[in-house]
Amino acid sequence: MDFLPIFLDVRDQPCLVVGGGEVAARKCALLLRAGARVTVLAPTLSAAFDADLAAARIAHRPGNFRDEDLTGCAVVIAATNDGAVNGAVAAAARARRIPVNVVDQPALCSFILPSIIERAPLIVAVSSGGASPVLARLLRARLESLIPAGYGRLAALAGAFRDRVKARLKPAERRRFWERVLEGPIAELVFSGREGEAGKALQDALDDTRLALSGGEVSLVGAGPGDPDLLTFRALRLMQQADVVVYDRLVSQPILDLARLEAERIYAGKERAKHALPQEDINQLLVRLAREGKRVVRLKGGDPFIFGRGGEEIGTLAAEGIPFQVVPGITAAAGCASYAGIPLTHREYSQSVVFVTGHLQDGSINLNWPALAQPRQTVVFYMGLLGVDILCRELVVHGLPGSTPAALIQQGTTPQQRVLAGTLDTLPGIVHQSGVRAPTLIIVGEVVKLRDRLKWFEPTA
What global pTM score does this model have? Predict the structure, then answer.
């Protein structure tokens, strides 16, 4: 280990930054975030020292560096483009046993500044010991995606209860208690911005530790339209904590592979007139698994609340008193349209967009056709493959020109994506000749004509 990792308290301590350029400005901002009193020694300050930074407890002292400038300093940072000046600062600071950092010259440093992930009061630092700052930043970027922004609030809540938990529980019990609290429903309340409820739930769990050690929960997670890169950070975190994953037919295998390896997987997919589990059975399955104390992820294609029947499922959970949360996903309309190069709205072509299911619960296609057949509007049909003839015909009957652009997207956002473009008059024939199979999405509107100009995604399979 080339450097000892430490966290230095510089609150209200005098710190010196030598240099007035962009790099020096960044170091000043970092010191100010830590509460230091910063003096900048430089002939002039560059434009990087904007008005906000210059007004934030920075004292500017023009002139050249002298040893006596270090008097009383807790930390020194040299950030000039003059090697001789940087070397003189480092030598003088070491002689006075003052911690010194020289930017991009680790051999002159007594300490280095790592890449940080700040979730105050939680701080994670990543360093390559000066060997490769870019590599450290890349690793930091990966960690950013794994550490929710709410972890700081969670750490603050845990800190507020630390003494109470210590007084109530034995060491081994404390560890188990905190593991369940910090990975369970209480943590998710904090991440959702409901700290008041989380504090009450934590106190209830401390009053009766069985609540913390035995309770299950259900998370309805939107898996997006197929590309695993479109998962949200929260969705991925919950999938990797799950005891059980109950998933739909539209959840792609690459997404399912991201769930915790040890998690039980239960298929609950539905196709037209072919359901692995009826909806009511799915609702009761979620209740039963949660009552067994399991962390359940109900993984749904697209978004749980857009034709995903998520409302029905959480209605049952709420009635049964089961803790739950909903994690939105990128809906099929947004994801598939983007990957196909079709903007759902556009100032020149469409000022509104409507999402419609292609068939009702009884299998019919009884839609409000006059409302859908409006000019300067985009209509997106979910589950419309089998009814494509009726959809296109009725839109024409109710006023849209047969020349209105229309497209069908199969397996959007995946390497198997296909886009069939035509018009209301020609799309049914194109679809019937292509051998397309579900899942598909149909987009109708003038925005479809932009596809050839704006498409960026090309399948790789």
Answer: 0.67
